[in-house]
Design a protein that fits this description.
Blueprint (H helix, E strand, L loop, with lengths): L1 E17 L2 E4 L5 E6 L6 E2 L4 E7 H11 L3 H10 L3 E4 L4 E6 L6 E2 L6 E4 L2 E8 L11 E6 L7 E8 L4 E3 L2 E10 L11 E18 L4 E3 L2 E6 L7 E10 L3 E6 L3
Antiparallel strand pairs: 1-10, 1-15, 2-9, 3-5, 3-8, 4-7, 5-6, 7-9, 10-14, 11-12, 11-15, 12-14, 13-14, 15-19, 16-17, 17-18, 18-19
């Protein structure tokens, strides 16, 4: 028996995904003139990401090229291209088109995300231990030497059942997003459920539980060990808090 600190944690696995993934689709079908951004670029809301031409403008410019550069210039001034504007602040995570490429009226030419998060799978037996804004730690499998401090952001209301195992998705936001963090990466998430300092601790293996009672054997000077009933607190698996029963 000793006094010390005990930290109760919960481990889960998850996948790095955008918190909000936004597909950018031009209002019309046509052809790409220029793309001004590339994957990984930080984007500001209202920034011009690309210039595109409608099918009619593209057809007119193609016809004008057969008549010479002056005709092309005249149509370019009369018939302006359409800008594609960033609707949110974030990062460009996918560029699906190149200049000269045609696209449909329901086709995403660019994809943005506001920030990356880890979607952790928590077993239903443990979901009651998870709270919003709870401290956590993320370790990416690809960068296992680096630990990222984080907090829980959202706990899903709908469960998923796979192979008779029911889990809930918990969004975990890192306090900072390193440049090497990528969507699709596998991560381990440690949720810090509770931390107590200066409490009385006993080895978990020394505690006996029977008929709803928990006891420990206490060695007395010049006496046989005696069994004493104790009230237990939190446990981290190795040590268990003794709330009552031992001085």
């Amino acid at each position: 028996v000793k006094r010390g600190d005990i930290k109760v944690s919960l481990l889960a696995t998850g996948t790095v995904q955008p918190q909000n993934r936004l597909e950018i689709k031009p209002p019309i079908a046509g052809r790409v003139d220029r793309v001004l951004v590339d994957e990984g670029h930080i984007i500001r809301r209202g920034q011009i990401l690309a210039w595109v031409s409608s099918r009619e403008r593209a057809a007119l410019l193609d016809a004008a090229r057969a008549q010479g550069p002056e005709e092309v210039k005249r149509w370019e001034e009369m018939y302006k291209p359409i800008p594609v504007i960033a609707p949110i602040n974030g990062t460009l995570i996918r560029r699906n088109v190149e200049p000269g490429q045609s696209f449909g009226d329901n086709e995403a030419i660019l994809v943005m995300s506001d920030r990356l998060t880890v979607k952790a799978q928590v077993d239903e037996t443990d979901i009651g231990k998870i709270k919003p804004a709870q401290s956590a730690e993320i370790v990416l499998d690809a960068y296992s030497h680096e630990r990222l401090s984080a907090k829980t952001a959202q706990i899903s209301f709908e469960a998923r059942t796979v192979s008779n195992v029911t889990t809930y998705i918990v969004d975990v936001l890192p306090d900072r997003t390193p440049d090497h963090m990528r969507a699709g990466m596998t991560a381990n998430v440690t949720f810090f459920v509770e931390l107590k300092t200066g409490v009385l601790l006993a080895p978990t293996e020394a505690i006996r539980s029977r008929d709803g009672r928990s006891t420990v054997l206490v060695k007395r000077p010049s006496q046989k060990p005696s069994e004493i009933e104790v009230k237990l607190g939190v446990t981290d698996g190795r040590d268990t808090e003794i709330v009552e029963g031992l001085l």
